[in-house]
What does this fold into?
Amino acid sequence: MIVNFTHHQSAHCENGVASNLLINQGIQMSEPMAFGLGSGLFYVYLPFIKVNHAPAISYRPLPGLIFNRLAKRLGMKIKRIKFSDKAKAQAVLEQKLAEGIPCGLQVGVFHLPYFPEEYRFHFNAHNLVVYGKEDEKYLVSDPVMESTTQMTTAELEKVRFAQGAFAPKGQIYYPIQLPTAIDWNKAITKAIKKTCNDMLAPVPIVGVKGMRMVARAIVKWPKKVGVPKANHYLAQMVRMQEEIGTGGGGFRFIYAAFLQEAGEKIGNSQLITLSKEMTEIGDSWRDFAVNAARVYKKRKNGEDVYIALSKELLTLADREEQFFKKLKKAI
It folds into this structure.
């Protein structure tokens, strides 16, 4: 029971699953285009929610939204199912595979047997594709991995029903209706407007305002929770930014690639110019991550290091605010 499926490695799991599933259906879709059309660039600070004992910071919308938005803008429909019964979840997956349909799954990463030890932690918003079953093992295309892999029924069940925040509940999804024609100009314009509105939202915890809120909090953390805990907060911030699903810096590079591809596709040279500026902003996010790492690894000490990080993040917020204002005008 093997579906004809081609594995393509990507930088981010949900983008990669969306891209791979669409390519399998004959729709050429790069990872940057999937990410951009799904309005995947985002920022939210949730100090009242703890992830790994640190305030939650997300550089992306809720799991599933990227693919849902992408599908809506392309004029296609996808089916999503969650389960309370593990046996039923397995039965539905096997039924779809028997019908020749590769399926996207949301899973927890902590128990993924092929993940390196240092990348395993309790994060339940990972995505992968199951495209067959052979010798009692499921064939898995995890887009962040270089090649395909296999998992036993027990291993797959464990990650499909991981517990905790964003528990996947055996979630499965797959296309059920493909677009007859795609209005690329309309899809790209709507997607960019949504991203601009999100990043410029008049909400204290969202977009550039959320970035400024974090910047102000960084200065307070050492006195409020102590230096060891403040450094743990910084470490978690960098982990979410640079390691988990590519996060802040990586997402900026993917979005820059989307703007370039989108500009070429709809003949908008301003998008191509702005893609270069977004790449430069991505470089600055990487610099911020390096500087934060020096602090939590105790290579830099003193109260002034937290002030410096705060100023650096405030500068990033200012640059992004101006960028998204220009981007909004460009479309």
User: Anything to note?
Assistant: Strands lie at 44-51, 54-58, 77-81, 103-107, 126-134, 137-141, 149-152, 172-177.
